Amino acid sequence: MTIGRCNGVVQLSILFLVVAVFCGCSSAVSTNGLYIRRVHVHLTNILPNNRDATVHCKSKENDLGEQTLRFGQDAQWDFHVNIMHTTLFWCNIWWYPYDGHRVQGGFHIYEAKRDIGACGTYCERYITGDGISFRNTTTGSIELVYPWPWKIDTESHH
């Protein structure tokens, strides 16, 4: 009798612990799985010569569609990071530094394993003439992370 009662107490304790862990993580359950953290991404166009940028961002679950960002405009979105830290948003971005010439690239704008510690719950990204830059939350500086596939001399083609 004592052993059976002890096993029941242990099982109940384990169940309570599992429920407490899930509730303590501020997690949300959806049809796509278990999520642990809500993140906000802010992508701003600061291309030289007031150039427009076209962006098409998506994840495995969400396609944010194509949009054109004028100089100084931004795209913003929120999402939950999954418990396995495999959440990934990538963006195809293109722009025209001068007539008829297109610069484009595909970039991992948010990658949970890389960014969960780097920017926390608010991640700032910038489209620049050099490529895609991220704000370093430790130093506050903006750092080039992804150069464009080839460098264009944007200053000589006004």
From TrEMBL:
Keywords: Secreted, Self-incompatibility, Signal. The keyword Transit peptide does not apply. Its main location: secreted. It is found in: Secreted. GO terms for cellular component: extracellular region. One of its GO terms (biological process) is rejection of self pollen. Residues 1-28 form the signal peptide. It comes from the Eukaryota. Belongs to the plant self-incompatibility (S1) protein family. PANTHER family: PLANT SELF-INCOMPATIBILITY PROTEIN S1 FAMILY, PTHR31232. This is S-protein homolog. It comes from Papaver atlanticum. The lineage of its organism: Eukaryota, Viridiplantae, Streptophyta, Embryophyta, Tracheophyta.
